[in-house]
Amino acid sequence: MNRTIAFVTIAFLAGLGIGYFARGAVGTLHHNEARSGDLAAIEKLHRADEECTLTQDPKCLTTLWSDDGINLGFPGPPVVGMKAMGDAYAKFRADYPDFQVLNYAPDYKEMHTAIVDEWAIEVGFIDATFKMSANAAPISPPRTKGMRLLKRQSDGSWKFALVGLK
């Protein structure tokens, strides 16, 4: 009888140990797959950001933002929400109809370490060259520091929730 109890106890403890480690390995695998999916979706946002910035299409630029996004890049108070974002981009386009982005090179390499739940944070730099009008000389400001907070959407895509530049 004591042998049976010892065998059952050892088998039970072995089962717990195997289950614990197997669950950890599967959880890690699932976490890595989810992280890879998030990184791919964030990279898709990066490509869309570059495309929309180069074209300066207000509707395209607006689609990059979450519904409650906050843009600190415009002069004046923060621009908050999709409608305000669309209005700000349209106003800028109306004020500067010949504005053209010649080069836009964001470098946000730190984001790979900062995905938590449905949020990701990116800290990096932007190099850009633009012209305010057709006849204006190109302007290349010094490398700009930036921070972007991204928010995972219900469909798994990522959009900007907060952008600040310095």
Head-to-tail CA distance between termini: 75 Å
Average pLDDT reading: 83
Helix content: 40-55%
Number of domains: 1
CATH class: Alpha Beta
Which architecture name does CATH use? Roll
Biggest sheet: strands, sense, closure? 7 strands, mixed
Radius of gyration, whole Å: 24 Å
Category by helix and strand content:
alpha+beta
Assembly type of the shown chains? single chain
Shape: globular
Fold and architecture overview:
There is one protein chain. The protein is an alpha+beta fold. The protein has one domain: Nuclear Transport Factor 2, Chain: A (Roll), CATH 3.10.450. Helices cover 44% and strands 30% of the residues. It is built from three helices and seven strands; from the N terminus they run ααββαβββββ. It has helices at 2-55, 58-62, 82-95, and strands at residues 65-71, 79-80, 100-107, 115-116, 119-131, 144-152, 158-165. Strands 1, 2, 3, 4, 5, 6 and 7 form a seven-stranded mixed sheet that branches. It is globular and about 50 Å long.
